[in-house]
């Protein structure tokens, strides 16, 4: 299975010792000698700790900052230079939609989608998938379908596209824009809706089976204002899904703000309330009419304030790339120069909350003082974990999910390669097995759900490079771990 890309290697949190961060100038676990801090270094800490690109600045709190990419612009070097420099997540603007990926029934075409995907991963970016089931941008053959025939076509489409990108997409917008605008709180009338009210949950169940590693999102616009009927309707649906076990992991707030749908400071409340339902949230298509710097900063701070806000995606690079160029709604002018809104967002990311995404961070061995580390920041399935000096890089960031997984890079799991003493503990694409589930006990042990054995630094080793295995639980200091 191909792995999805990592954010750039400059990723780190602001809490990292500055000199450590500067000294570790290469990928992952290859640590350089670290000089002790000096008074001079401490004085200049604030200045140097600020990151100079959106992606690196967002990564300080474990988040991403992404953009929509249009395949037709990938031969524009001014465009790709900015996109590559500033962003560490990519959404295909149109290329993974239904009309692009299944132009004829049963005949899939991933040429344009793969162009965007490949550009992203070749440049070290993660990819959001957009979008699998939607009333708009359906190919002609699908527009003319109805009833069970359309329902089956939707299921087949989800399976076909997700199979192609299996294990490669961090978040998928499974269903897009299913609620009506206005005050009704009703579902949008569409051919998909007319197949039966359960079409959305069928889409999510199909998606979970097709790619268990992807986070599955519902995505919509005009759902940012907590008081709006559309927001409340979406909230009721997500709450119902969580109660009934319909597999939904995240909600995408498109965030196309304009005079008819302005930003309201209660957006933060909205994000918090959805997160409290037990889903992640993301800002997925941000653009703001006129690009007011303060509003851009406020949206950024709203995401930073919510631990389950995974990141922000703007809907295009320069104003001239926008679907609404007349609104000049983005962070870069047509000539590639940075707008005041860019600086406002960057400052917000640099000065912003250090609240990491929920239940996420390094795992430190009590006996060694060293961290659970993927050697060389590798992404290959089967790579055995080791102890290494804690450096707060992405290959040491572990998220304990509600399912009990310990995830790294978003879609790789801490995985036991066996059930006996000495079994290798490795990374592997998340698939939901019990060998990928772990209990974090109050005494500091991390117990494999399948084996009942403990995460163990082999031979009570404490040095860099000590391998991680399963072993009978003893509560020794080589089996106790802290999460900071
Ligand atoms: O590429 C063809 C071109 O060959 C043709 O000559 C031309 C004629 O109009 O159309 C071009 O395709 C256009 C395509 O964008 C690429 O530029 C389509 O007409 C146009 O409809 C399409 O618009 C996209 C729109 O979704 C369609 O619904 C926008 O680029 C895209 O930014 C926009 O994105 C949506 C999200 O997916 C969902 N949320 C709202 C957001 C903004 O509308």
Descriptive account of the structure:
By secondary structure, this protein is an alpha/beta fold. Helix content is 27%, strand content 20%. It is built from 14 helices and 22 strands. Strand 18 and strand 19 form a beta hairpin. Helix 9 packs parallel to helix 10 and helix 13 runs parallel beside helix 14 (340-351). Ligand G3I is lined by residues 93-94, 136-137, 176, 221, 254, 285, 323. The site of ligand G3I has 9 residues, from loops.
Helices and strands in order:
Elements: H1 18-23, H2 39-43, H3 45-49, H4 54-59, E1 64-69, H5 77-86, E2 89-92, H6 98-101, H7 111-122, E3 126-134, H8 140-143, H9 147-164, E4 171-176, H10 199-210, E5 215-220, H11 229-244, E6 250-253, E7 256-257, H12 267-275, E8 280-288, H13 293-305, E9 309-314, H14 340-351, E10 360-361, E11 363-365, E12 371-373, E13 386-388, E14 398-400, E15 406-408, E16 412-416, E17 425-429, E18 438-440, E19 446-448, E20 454-457, E21 468-471, E22 481-483
Parallel strand pairs: 1-2, 1-9, 2-3, 3-4, 4-5, 5-6, 6-8, 7-8, 8-9
Antiparallel strand pairs: 10-14, 11-22, 12-13, 14-15, 15-16, 16-17, 18-19, 20-21
Helix pairs in contact: 9-10, 13-14
Bound molecules: ligand G3I.
């Amino acid at each position: 299975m191909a792995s999805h890309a990592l954010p750039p290697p400059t990723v780190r949190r602001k809490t990292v010792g500055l000199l450590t961060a500067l000294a570790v100038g290469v990928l992952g676990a290859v640590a350089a000698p670290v000089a002790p801090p000096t008074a001079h270094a401490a004085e200049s800490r604030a200045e140097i700790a600020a990151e100079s690109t959106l992606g690196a600045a967002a990564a300080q709190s474990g988040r991403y900052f992404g953009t929509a990419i249009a395949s037709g612009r990938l031969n524009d070097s001014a465009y790709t230079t900015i996109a590559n420099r500033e962003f560490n997540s990519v959404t295909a603007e149109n290329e993974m939609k239904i009309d692009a990926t299944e132009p004829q029934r049963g005949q899939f075409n991933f040429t344009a989608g793969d162009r965007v995907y490949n550009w992203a991963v070749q440049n070290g970016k993660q990819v959001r998938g957009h979008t699998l089931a939607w009333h708009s941008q359906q190919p002609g053959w699908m527009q003319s379908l109805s009833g069970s025939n359309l329902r089956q076509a939707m299921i087949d489409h989800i399976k076909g596209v997700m199979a192609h990108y299996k294990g490669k997409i961090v978040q998928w917008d499974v269903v897009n824009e299913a609620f009506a605008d206005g005050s009704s709180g009703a579902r949008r009338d569409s051919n998909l809706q007319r197949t039966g009210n359960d079409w959305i949950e069928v889409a999510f169940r199909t998606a979970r089976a097709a790619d268990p590693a992807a986070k599955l999102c519902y995505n919509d616009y005009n759902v940012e204002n907590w008081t709006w009927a559309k927001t409340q309707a979406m909230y009721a649906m997500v709450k119902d899904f969580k109660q009934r076990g319909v597999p939904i992991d995240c909600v995408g707030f498109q965030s196309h703000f304009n005079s008819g749908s302005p930003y309201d400071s209660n957006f933060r409340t909205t994000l918090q309330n959805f997160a409290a339902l037990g889903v992640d949230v993301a800002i997925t298509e941000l653009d703001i009419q006129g690009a007011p710097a303060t509003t851009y900063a406020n949206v950024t701070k709203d995401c930073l304030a919510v631990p389950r806000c995974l990141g922000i995606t703007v809907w295009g690079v320069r104003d001239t790339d926008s679907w609404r160029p007349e609104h000049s709604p983005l962070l870069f002018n047509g000539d590639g120069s940075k707008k005041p809104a860019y600086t406002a967002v960057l400052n917000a990311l640099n000065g912003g909350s250090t609240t990491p995404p929920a239940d996420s961070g390094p795992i430190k061995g009590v006996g060694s003082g060293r961290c659970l580390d993927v050697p060389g920041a590798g992404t290959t399935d089967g790579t055995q974990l080791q102890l290494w000096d804690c450096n707060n890089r992405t290959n040491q960031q572990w998220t304990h999910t509600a399912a009990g997984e310990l995830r790294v890079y978003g879609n790789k799991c801490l995985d036991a390669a066996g059930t006996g003493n000495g079994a290798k503990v490795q990374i592997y694409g998340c698939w939901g097995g019990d060998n990928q589930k772990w209990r974090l006990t109050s005494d500091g042990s991390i117990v494999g759900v399948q084996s009942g054995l403990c995460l163990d630094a082999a031979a009570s080793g404490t040095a860099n490079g000590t391998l991680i295995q399963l072993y009978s639980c003893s509560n020794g200091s080589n089996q106790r771990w802290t999460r900071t």
